[in-house]
Amino acid sequence: MTVHIIFRSGGLVITMLLGWLFARKRYSLLQVVSVLLVTLGVILTTLSASPVRVSQSKDVFTDSYTYATGIVILTLALVFSGFLGLVQDWTYSRYGRPSLTTSSSSQPPAWQESMFYLHFLALPMFVSVRHDLLIQIHALNSGPRLSLPGQVGSIIPAASVPLIINTLTQLLCVSGVNRLTTKVTALTVTLILVVRKAASLVLSVIGVGIIQRGNGSHSDVDKGMLWSGAGMVLFGTVIYSLGSKSIRKIDNKKRV
Q1: Three-state SS letters, 24-44
Q2: Residues 6+ apart with CB under 8 A from 159
Q3: CA–CA distance from 26 to each of 21, 54, 159, 227, 243 (Å)?
Q4: What pTM was computed for the model?
């Protein structure tokens, strides 16, 4: 999970590269340095959990292939997310971003319309994993029930409670991101998501470390490499924010 969180933080790098290649955007030296720091941090964190140990098991090739497949999928997801951010940025820049003071009761906000189409058009993709979904639903219904008085507890699966909580929190997160997309640029949105992912990394590492110490086990993750990569991601994010301020000052002077 920690590798996944930090690797997805490379979306800042992808968005910047795509903006430079396709949207003809220009960036300051601080922003370029921040890109290099974040990229190096992502690489270090990815390698910190890679299966590099020699094992006598026959599944070593399978594990390496699975790991490489996951990295490829994450890379494609980063690229497509970068293109999506550029398209959203171009759309709101061309047709206007909604005003903070404008309120219209006749039509829903633009971010709600965008969120609806993004999720509705993605629903057919679940057809390819329908068998896995059915297995997971069966496992959920076959699990233990809630320990509640009466017949209610015997009907509701215990695993449904964290599932519902996770669904509600994801709804809040997705709604906030889509609302933020209508107010600021794609790079600013990605920057905020990087900070959120870094905070999630700290919480996950601390939580897993406490659980493993309680069980008397140890982690196979290279913590030195992991924390070095996480620190580079955070430091690169701060430098990028400073570089963005200098770019805005230059743009304001040109407008004057």
Answers
A1: CCCCCHHHHHHHHHHHHHHHH
A2: 140, 143
A3: 10, 45, 49, 31, 12
A4: 0.69
Is the predicted pLDDT of residue 45 greater than 90, yes or no? no
| pLDDT at res. 16 | 82
Phi-psi region at 185: left, alpha or beta (left = phi > 0; alpha = psi -120 to 50): beta
Residue 232 CA to residue 235 CA, distance in Å, equals 5
The answer to whether residues 235 and 8 touch, using CB atoms and an 8 Å cutoff, is no
Q: Tokens 């061309």 identify what position?
A: 94
With beta carbons less than 8 A apart as the criterion, state whether 119 and 107 touch: no
At residue 166, the pLDDT reads 92
DSSP state of 145: B
Can you tell me the distance from the alpha carbon of 14 to that of 75, in angstroms, rounded to the nearest whole number? 9
Separation between Cα atoms, residue 200 and residue 2, nearest integer Å: 8
Query: Tens digit of pLDDT for each residue in 179-224?
Result: 888 887 787 788 788 777 767 766 776 676 666 666 666 566 677 8
Q: What pLDDT sits at residue 171?
A: 92
Q: How far apart are CA 94 and CA 86, in angstroms?
A: 12
Cα of first residue to Cα of last residue in the chain, in angstroms, is 48
DSSP 161-225: HHHHHHHHHHHHHHHHHHHHHTTS-HHHHHHHHHHHHHHHHHHHHHHHHHHHHHHT----S-HHH
